[in-house]
Design a protein that fits this description.
Helices cover 38% and strands 23% of the residues. The chain has 298 residues and is α/β, with parallel strands linked by helices. Helix 1 crosses helix 8 and helix 8 runs antiparallel to helix 9.
């Protein structure tokens, strides 16, 4: 079982909105790939919150893991197209900023999840940082930690990044995020990724490079996978979450790393070829699900 915590919200694109949040997208994909998932978040006592709860229930998530905030609204993010992708304006002080460490979460950790997933964004508040600290305190020693670095402006500090990489066994980030962590060091991106391993004990660094593909780095070696490019790119929002989910599922099922990154790249390309981060047809997941779930059963 994989425990996931963090934001679930609505991305606002001018005249349309779609459900999002990296942890939610991750949890949705992993569940559709056949793995057991518990997703913990918080929504407002409002129409958007009720829409989220109805959606989660329709996809067989346990909505008792979703906290209801009596005072703060469900989270929203204004997404604006930009030259190199999108810019994100996060509405401050919404429900997901106040996710609490609950008895249900503690009981889930006591069951011994195989993996815990969290991102850097949930730690933009003191309560979020406390939440991740409590999870790390209660996490069994054998549970691996997958951290998705997501460096939005004014939503992180060097201390938060340090906490993330120090707690994580698996770190996923993109080229721009690694460059920010690297700072003024003149290391190459691969050397900077290996530095995370050498200085923080990370087991796998997953580095996404956009059109240049992706690189996975371990203490022993590194692999590079070219990007899969769809015939037409419709929407890149959520592609990184799709890549992270397939990566985590493959690592959880102990697929060879080169196989995992190839499957992750293929699925991310599919997400780029549709509008929205979540496929409407579960059949999209079947080829990858079969590869992942059948591994090691022959």
């Amino acid at each position: 079982m994989i425990l996931v915590t963090g934001e679930i919200l609505f991305d606002l694109f001018g005249d349309r909105r779609q459900m999002g949040g990296a942890p939610f997208n991750f949890a949705f994909h992993v569940k559709k790939l056949g793995l057991a998932v518990r997703f913990f978040s918080r929504v407002g006592n409002d129409d958007l919150g009720r829409e989220i709860l109805d959606f989660l229930d329709s996809h067989n998530f346990d909505t008792r893991d979703i906290q209801i905030d009596p005072d703060r609204p469900t989270g929203t993010v204004v997404v604006t197209p930009a030259r190199d992708g999108h810019t994100f304006t996060i509405t401050p002080d919404t429900a997901w900023d106040r996710i609490g460490f609950t008895p249900r979460m503690k009981a889930c950790l006591e069951q011994g999840p195989d993996m815990v997933y969290f991102g850097s964004l949930v730690q933009r508040t003191g309560q979020g940082r406390s939440l991740i600290g409590r999870i790390m305190d209660w996490k069994p020693a054998g549970t691996r930690v997958f951290c998705d670095i997501n460096l939005r402006p004014e939503s992180y500090t060097k201390a938060v990044v340090h906490t993330c990489v120090s707690a994580a066994d698996i770190v996923k980030l993109n080229r721009e995020e690694l460059a920010q962590i690297r700072g003024r060091d003149r290391l190459s991106l691969e050397a900077a990724g290996r530095n995370l391993i050498n200085t923080h004990g990370v087991q796998v660094v997953i580095l996404t490079l956009g059109a240049k593909g992706s690189t996975w780095i371990t203490p022993e070696t590194s692999w590079h996978c070219p990007a899969e490019t769809p015939e037409k790119i419709i929407d890149t929002v959520g592609a990184g979450d799709a890549y992270a989910a397939v990566s985590a599922a493959c690592l959880h099922r102990h697929l060879p790393l080169d196989t995992g990154m190839a499957l992750a790249s293929a699925f991310a390309a599919h997400i780029c070829a549709q509008e929205g981060a979540l496929p409407e047809d579960d059949a999209v997941y079947q080829p990858i699900k079969q590869r992942i779930m059948n591994h090691g059963t022959a």
